[in-house]
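Hi again,

Forgot to attach this to my earlier email, sorry! This is the prediction with zinc ion bound. I've pasted everything inline since the attachment limit keeps bouncing my files.
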Amino acid sequence: MTQQVIDINLARLMETIQQSAIIGELPNGGLSRLSLTDEDKKMRDLFLKWLQECGLETRFDDFGNMYGRKKGRNNKLAPVLIGSHLDTQPKGGRYDGVLGVLGALEVIRTIDDLGIETDRPIEIVNFTNEEGARFQPAMLGSGAMAEVFNKQNVQNTKDQKGVIFEEELERIGYKGLKENRQQKPFCFLELHIEQGPVLEDQQKSLGLVMGIQGMTWLEATVTGSTSHTGTTPMNRRKDAVLLASKLISKIYSMAEEIPNLLVAVGRIQASPNVINTVSDQVVFSIDIRHPDNHIRERYEKLLKESLSMMTLVEEMELQIKDLDRIGTDYFSKEIIDVMEKATEKHGFSYMKMLSGAGHDAKYMNRIAPTAMLFIPSVNGLSHCEEEFSERADIVKGVQVLYDSVLALANKETL
Ligand SMILES: [Zn+2]
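Structure tokens for the complex follow:
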């Protein structure tokens, strides 16, 4: 038998999301709340007030990550950490990140409503600059806390106008102490919108996220030679664009043979890029993604061999440079089991999946057992004003977050 009992207060949560949605609001319902701007400060101030109204102990660390701590029965135990980010893209939606933070707040409010005590403390976190829209890299606050990024580099990062991260953090009043970082949580759990169409296509309300899909970024340079387009016969040319177009077709046709492989040539530059000159050089990017690291690496190897052969036949040159390579990160099976039990208890439809996008959970996974929970994005849209999630899915996501947090906060080990 399944139970459809809902503990969380959806009306209160939606009202809280609505209050967030007016700070940096855009004409078509979206949000512009770039990290460490005046809008971000205003949102942080309101969030801090909400944390304090719940009686949580609040603090922020040296990267501006904000925390609210609810005590447990044994405060020597490591806390269950939940949250996401309140910053947005320049033209973002009202749910991306926000749902994970304000959903976590609703979990705490519900625990208070029902007078529940847990063994472990529970902490909420709002990570600084997840989006990477103002300061690069993305997921800066979580990555810095997990010590993936060098502290000095993070502090000195500048936005496009040359404004320094650390100065902005000080200006808005959220530069805290290093001791305030939460580097040893018992576990981390992040609720987020999917930002893609898979859950909607599969007609599932929840995605239990097993990890973050790895990727390989390459840059190919094809070199031929320039000549006059009006005077050089076709058989005398070394046209880099012609060869590049054949290579790019090959990249896609080889990928079609492999289930679940994603590949894209997203950036392309011919030179001299002139109408009446045969191009002597084309530089293009190759983005390769697959859940299985071995399959991704095997495709890359076969692709490189194949492209080299094709180039040899045309008597031109090809260089392929590695730009970036990140393996698939797998989340904690134990936390996924906890979420699965909660989901099944309520009879909510769900599937297990990988995340195609990066999230704060990626870096938290380096320092603590971590997992994520997705709810559907209507039409798979995100990072745009049209981004939307249904109330019916929001309630399920936050309810499963609530049940999972309670279970985890009473667990001795994972
Ligand atoms: Zn996000």
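The domain at 10-212+328-409 is CATH 3.40.630.10 (Aminopeptidase). The pocket of zinc ion is lined by residues 85, 96-97, 130, 192 (CB under 6 Å).

That should be everything now.

G.
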